[in-house]
Write a structure and sequence with these properties.
Blueprint: H1 20-36, H2 51-58, H3 60-72, H4 81-86
């Protein structure tokens, strides 16, 4: 997320009284807004990212990660539907 650029990290917290579906919706909207502004949401957190958006925001780093991932996990033992959606 922070590769090749100055970076800040934004954390969010929701109290127990906040409906979890509402919180997830807010986080996805925030992620979309940050992508529009050149931000790189954490791909392991709540977002609306897909392969195309990942390529858009991570550029060549995305492809570098794919090479490393495929070398270290050639049989996708550590993949799941979520990872396959993004990579």
């Amino acid at each position: 997320m922070a590769s090749d650029r100055k970076t800040i990290f934004i954390s969010t917290f929701f109290g127990k009284s906040i409906d979890s579906n509402y919180a997830i919706n807010v986080l996805k909207k925030m992620s979309d807004f940050l992508v529009q502004k050149g931000g790189r949401p954490h791909y392991g957190k709540i977002h609306n990212l897909n392969k195309q958006k990942m390529i858009q925001i991570y550029g060549n780093n995305y492809y570098d990660f794919i090479k490393i991932k495929n070398k270290l996990d050639p049989f996708e033992n550590f993949s799941n539907n979520y990872i396959k959606k993004l990579f």
